[in-house]
Amino acid sequence: MDFRATLLEETRALGDVIGNADPETPVPTCPGWNMNQLLKHVGRGHRWSAQIIAERRHEPLDPREVRDGKPPEDVDGALEWLNQGAQLVIDAVDRVGPEIRVWTFTGPRPAGWWIRRRVHEATVHRGDAVLALGGDFVLPAELAADGVSEWIELATVGANLRHPPLARGQTLHLHASDAGLGPTGEWTITHDEDGLQWSHDHAKGEAAVRGRAVDLLLALTRRRTAAEADVEVLGDATVWDTWLSGTPF
Questions:
Q1: Cα–Cα dist 72/80, whole Å
Q2: 32: region left, alpha or beta (phi > 0 left; psi from -120 to 50 alpha)
Q3: φ, ψ at 28 (rounded to 5°)
Q4: 120 and 31, same structural domain?
Q5: Which spans in the chain are helix H?
Q6: Domain ranges, residue 163
Q7: 0.85 cut: is pTM over it?
């Protein structure tokens, strides 16, 4: 997958949705936010990431110190600012090199890590904007499945081991119903003596969750309940519920 092109495309698509809406429209899946705040969040986040990369930082950057961190007041200017932010991330990676390690909230990572992270940040927030307007969130299955993988990666790396989202000895399995995904459309999460692990293996667990990749993504990120997303939960539903309650970001 070309994450660079996808970052630009998804950011533009988010801007198209926001630009055609009343900026004061509430975004229910981001409580307390409206469309204007959603745009600011993603646009500033792009610039925040780009500055971390460009400065080869090994410590977090205060969001208040992001250069050009506020969009222009006019809609066209704000959308241009949003799209420029996505390009800044790519440009920063190109300047320092994709393998140069920089700060991330999961520990030091190659700078190129940020491109994929910002892709899925823009994608999920485009979902927020579409859902706020009562629309149907459409996403290619391959991109949605990678979003599921990335979310599980973040959840397992950042899990609170004192209150893990999966009890010791339990397994949670997710299966995308989209045709053509192959192994990338399955995820098995286990909690064993080594902690939380995940793979694309097919395995039985205490709970299994099945649906389209885009619907799994919406359910995992708590944008939709399983019922709202038309996702089927088989087995012990409390395992799924505990996973959701233990993986907030």
A1: 9
A2: left
A3: -60, -30
A4: yes
A5: 3-19, 35-54, 75-96, 113-132, 141-157, 213-220, 237-245
A6: 141-245
A7: yes
CA-based nearest residue to 229, from 246, 247, 245, 213:
213
121 and 16 fall within a common domain = yes
Give the per-residue pLDDT at 89: 98
User: Under a CB-based contact definition with an 8 Å cutoff, are residues 123 and 42 in contact?
Assistant: no
| Residues 11 and 93 occupy one common structural domain | yes
- Per-residue pLDDT tens digits for 133-192: 999 999 999 999 999 999 999 999 876 667 789 999 999 999 999 999 999 999 999 999
What's 11's domain CATH number?
1.20.120.450
Q: For residue 249, give the amino acid letter.
A: F
Mark which of 70, 105, 132 sits at the end of a domain: 132
- For residue range 29-85, list pLDDT tens digits in order: 999 999 999 999 999 999 999 999 999 999 999 999 999 999 999 999 999 999 999
* Helix spans in 73-138 (H): 75-96, 113-132
Are 59 and 113 within one domain? yes
Mean pLDDT, the chain, rounded, equals 96
